[in-house]
Amino acid sequence: MGTAVTHVPPAPPAVEPAAPGTAAGGGSATPSGGARRGRARRENVAGYLFMSPWIAGFVLLTAGPMIASLYFAFTDYNLFDAPRWIGLRNFTEMFADPRWRTSVEVTSWYVIVGTPLKLAAALGVALLLNQKRAGQGFYRAAFYAPSLIGASVSIAIVWRAIFSDGAVVDRAQQVFGLDAGGWIGDPDRIVYSLVALTVWQFGAPMVIFLAGLKQVPRELYEAAEMDGAGTWRRFWNITLPMISPVLFFNVLLETIHSFQVFGSAYILGGQGNSCGPADATLVYTCYLYIQGFENSRMGFASAMAWMLLLAVGLVTAVLFWSQRRWVHYEEASR
């Protein structure tokens, strides 16, 4: 018998795997490492070119002057002669200066009294504007307008005229049988006119409060009403906790702004080497301006500026530390 022969077809040739970055036809599917690095380099250059105006402004207008003022703080510098190194003499003289201590007291009083009043007015008006009523857009614009023009010199001049002897406030006091006399010339009352001007500019924090109130769910108020909660309890237990992040932001921002008040205090107090009768409106920045630009003691003014920076930084750190006790974030409650 013959032996059967089975025909086995030859196996197909093995196909080698394509190298990374190459297609089956030999073409390049992805750019090579050198091409990728070149494209990334071009993108970085383009990004830095777009950022260059901000970088130049930061270096020339912020970082550079800050470094220069830190050096001047340890020198005797009058803007005309070369600075002369004197070490810590500016700081020791500052702490012994009674007018510097007065400026610290006036500024502290202004921050402690003016900031809460401004925020209370802003929150109160925001609560009113959060209710649905006709003409909401007009009222919001009207209440916000003072924030746009309140910091101008012209408004400060008008405010000074309003609180002067024989002006509107003086005549209103006479109608109600109060002691006649303007506030501008009275050392005990001129600072209240400065606080009143600050409170009048509550528009910016009001808008932020209003945005926060819009985010409070209405279902919470409806559930509280069904449980018999009154207006005050709903405000204290629902509104304040829900807008506490916005409240913290406004407290932080307005506190920093209060430390930096200058124009209104300088105009109300009267231009020159004083701020108000008996230094009643001698806020910190006003005395800094007097020392630096009127007395030509730029080294002393630079030392004052760095002390202000340290004070604002310390207050900011305390506020951030305290937020753990009264600020409620939605992410933390989940």
UniProtKB/TrEMBL annotation:
The signal peptide, as residue positions, is: none
Domain annotation ABC transmembrane type-1: ranges: 104-319
SUPFAM superfamilies given in the database record = MalF N-terminal region-like, MetI-like
Chain segments annotated as transmembrane? 45-74, 109-129, 141-162, 190-213, 234-253, 303-321
Going by the entry's taxonomy, the superkingdom of the source organism is recorded as Bacteria
Membrane topology term reads: Multi-pass membrane protein
Pfam families in alphabetical order: BPD_transp_1
CDD domains attached to this UniProt entry: TM_PBP2
The ranges of region (Disordered) come to 1-38
Localization of this protein? Cell membrane
PROSITE patterns registered for this protein in UniProt: ABC_TM1
Swiss-Prot/TrEMBL keywords: Cell membrane, Membrane, Transmembrane, Transmembrane helix, Transport
The family classification in the record reads: Belongs to the binding-protein-dependent transport system permease family.
Recorded protein name is Carbohydrate ABC transporter permease
Q: Which organism is it from?
A: Streptomyces lateritius
Taxonomy, top ranks, is: Bacteria, Bacillati, Actinomycetota, Actinomycetes, Kitasatosporales
